[in-house]
Amino acid sequence: MVDHEALHRVFGSCLREGNLIPVDNLEKRSRQELLEALKSATNNCGRNKGYDKGKRSFQILAELNTRSLENLSYFCRFKETLSIHL
Questions:
Q1: Measured between alpha carbons, how far is 63 from 30 in angstroms, rounded to an integer?
Q2: Are 8 and 15 in contact (CB under 8 A)?
Q3: Rounded distance, CA 49 to CA 14, Å?
Q4: Cα–Cα distance measured from residue 11 to residue 67, given in angstroms and rounded to the nearest whole number
Q5: What is the mean pLDDT of residues 66-81?
Q6: Contacts of 7 (CB under 8 A, 6+ apart)
Q7: CA dist list (Å): 57 to 36, 47, 50, 62
Q8: HSE-up of residue 48 (Cα within 13 Å, Cβ side)
Q9: pLDDT of residue 59
Q10: Torsion-angle region of 5 (φ positive above 0: left; ψ -120 to 50: alpha; else: beta)
Q11: Of 39, 45, 67, 85, whose Cβ has the fewest other Cβ atoms within 10 Å?
Q12: What burial class does residue 64 get, using C-beta atoms within 10 Å of its C-beta: 0-12 exposed, 13-18 middle, 19+ buried?
């Protein structure tokens, strides 16, 4: 939800950005709430073309610009921990 450009590359013009959760306080939202918002934002994309865990989530991950994640505290902690252990 942080990288709207990646979502547009995967879902195209059928993506309804208004149904996505705002980035502010994104990390305080429940996993279920995030999944429901992604499904709602892509439910007009057609059969098997909306968001779902698995193939579609990995397509988004492949398109993701990691710089868009740098404002998320969880991502910063993840990067920090990873650099310590590698």
A1: 23
A2: yes
A3: 10
A4: 20
A5: 90
A6: 1, 15, 17, 20, 41, 60
A7: 13, 16, 10, 9
A8: 1
A9: 94
A10: alpha
A11: 85
A12: middle
Query: How many CA atoms lie less than 13 Å away from 20 in the CB half-sphere?
Result: 17
Tokens of 3: 């990288």
**Calpha distance 70→64 (Å, rounded):** 12
Contact 34, 1 (CB under 8 A): yes
Tokens of 27: 């990390």
pLDDT, residue 55, reads 86
Tell me the per-residue pLDDT of 17-64, one tens digit each, with 9 for 90 and over. Answer: 999 998 888 889 999 999 999 999 999 998 889 998 888 999 999 999
User: Is it the case that residue 1 has pLDDT exceeding 90?
Assistant: no
Q: d(Cα 78, Cα 74) in Å, to the nearest integer? A: 6
The two three-digit tokens of residue 8, written as one number: 């547009």
Q: Which two tokens stand for residue 51?
A: 């968001």
